[in-house]
DNA sequence: GTGAAAGCGCTAACAA
DNA sequence: TTGTTAGCGCTTTCAC
């Protein structure tokens, strides 16, 4: 009595279930996948056996024989920085809702060996598809090396041909934000850039476009790193120049660093200098003064990206592009010049 | 001439490689895994064939037959919030360094169906191991439901028996931080808590311990959500009470919200009220005033967690516990009472 | 050092 | 509706 069916100590397999239920292996498979009809009686026997053995089908075996997988890979240069983390969260939420699992592959640099390692790790897997965060040079490099034999979607800020893509129209938002500052009466707007993914960076492009359209002078671009503190010396330098009355920063963290530098130099935001950022970081609203910035729906970007992937898995003529225009969050860090 | 070896349009398999190289399939396998010796001549032929066909072994087939996998699963209640994102980053870095891939499974709530879904998704996979972020109730619930048949490690702030575990000793750090405030001359320290994972929360425990040891009164605990803005009304309420001179917040984001509330109420930090946080958020140093907080090495926690997992995969008598004491970052948001 | 044979756990194709 | 047969792409015996 009570002897366990199946090999002791091992996970039960589908044939253990079949044996216990008194049916054939394919019938168990039919119950599992729901692909074909099974009589109610047998179905119940099978389900009882599954429950009794606490059976879980082996994903590896399924993938091997069916050549189909419920796993997608996300390739990203980073997983924890705000925009990256939120985008991955959006992908995961959309994927989970459709019963897919997410595998993360980080590409630290655009270094050839590193990119190859990441691409090979992905190509070994049998995957339903791949999403690449084309936010930075490693992401761009990985995308270029990736084979196109499986569904593939890129996520980024600038449109490019080739791979299906979901984007946030950063250039349009940056242009709108810069135009807003000019409209406030500023003669021009200075720009602090975060490390760009390529020669063209949507935020910088939009900024420049707004200045050109307004016939405003285009000051030299200042470069920050991803590190918020890198904005501090830039802010001090900017504060020392009386010509500077408005600054557009490539992201909110840098804007916060720049504001700190301006404060250290004894000048005030927004009374002396207006500062705006990009991304609508969770702390932007809490900052003093609350930061005027661009609401980037990264989680939405991730969700749109997965939707695009899903479409291209099921439909030959799937959409190849999804764009969304971010909105500006008007807060207190920008004001007319005195 | 030029006819491709292998089935057209399909990925090449190991037998295509064997055929092209003029060796048997197992020999190719030996070259791939490096498990057994192969003569230099054959090895070269095989490597040439692999390169020519751009062959990648199928991970699914390998896993099926060898019952070994180079993938680990991470179960987490969240992926994008600071502590979570950094911990996952640490796990991924350590895993990647050892050639492992990370699969993410999010458990949104401690709801039974949701926990079961996540656990089943994990148990279907053939995995080298599982890391659970026991930071919140969903994490705790998932850990409890998870079978113990494969290597498993929990990451959290409070020690418990059972599963091997890496922790940050939050209770000790909280006690030290609270004692520091008392040492500054504050009569007592108020506490704003973030949603706890269980009845016992290390941060709250350490705070209470320090107060008891100093015979200081223990004020009622105030509850915030994970949302930084939830700290604002709490800060206003605290500022209205003249008894309040020092506040210990469950994390930095809440501390920032509380400080904003205090400012809105017209009182100053640290002159009127000292505020300290927990985690050393990237923006804590940039805040005005710079926030005194606890440096939590989440990435290090993740790395230690993976190390524990690796040990328990290879060694029966592996360590079952790794603890680290976070350090306090003394900055300007805490000062003696006036 | 190398190859032949077996089979991992499942689904697909077919026949009944 | 159900069972039989075949085989996914690899690694693992086991001879030689």
TrEMBL record, chains A, B:
This protein's record includes keyword Nucleotide-binding: no
Keywords: DNA-binding, Transcription, Transcription regulation
A molecular-function term among this protein's GO annotations: DNA binding
Stored CDD domains: HTH_LacI, PBP1_LacI
Keyword tRNA-binding: no
HTH lacI-type domain: residues covered: 12-66
Coiled-coil annotated spans: none
Protein name: LacI family DNA-binding transcriptional regulator
């Amino acid at each position: 009595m009570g002897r366990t069916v199946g090999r002791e100590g091992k996970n039960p397999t589908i044939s253990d279930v079949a044996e216990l239920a008194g049916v054939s292996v394919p019938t168990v498979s039919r119950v599992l996948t729901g692909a074909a009809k099974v009589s109610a009686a047998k179905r119940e026997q099978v389900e009882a056996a599954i429950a009794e053995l606490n059976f879980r089908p082996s994903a590896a075996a399924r993938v091997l024989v069916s050549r189909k997988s419920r796993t997608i890979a996300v390739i990203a240069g980073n997983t924890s920085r705000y925009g990256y983390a939120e985008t991955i969260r959006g992908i995961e939420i959309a994927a989970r809702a459709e019963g897919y699992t997410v595998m993360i592959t980080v590409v630290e640099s655009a270094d050839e060996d590193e990119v190859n390692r990441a691409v090979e790790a992905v190509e070994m897997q049998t995957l339903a598809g791949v999403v690449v965060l084309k936010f930075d040079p490693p992401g761009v490099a990985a995308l270029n090396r990736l084979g196109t034999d499986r569904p593939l979607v890129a996520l980024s800020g600038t449109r490019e041909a080739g791979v299906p893509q979901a984007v946030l129209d950063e250039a349009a938002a940056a242009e709108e934000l810069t135009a807003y500052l000019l409209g406030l009466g500023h003669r021009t707007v200075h720009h602090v850039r975060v490390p760009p993914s390529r020669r063209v960076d949507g935020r910088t492009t939009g900024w420049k476009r707004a200045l050109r359209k307004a016939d405003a002078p285009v000051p030299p671009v200042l470069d920050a790193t991803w590190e918020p503190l890198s904005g501090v010396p830039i802010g001090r330098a900017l504060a020392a120049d009386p010509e500077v009355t408005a600054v557009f920063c490539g992201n909110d963290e840098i804007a916060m660093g720049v504001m700190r530098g301006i404060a250290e130099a004894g000048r005030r935001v927004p009374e002396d200098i207006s500062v705006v950022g990009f991304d609508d970081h969770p702390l932007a609203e809490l900052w003093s003064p609350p930061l005027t910035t661009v609401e980037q729906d990264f989680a939405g970007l991730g969700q749109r990206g997965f939707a695009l992937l899903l479409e291209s898995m099921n439909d030959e003529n799937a959409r190849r592009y999804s764009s969304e225009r971010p909105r500006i969050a008007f807060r207190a860090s920008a004001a007319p010049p005195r």
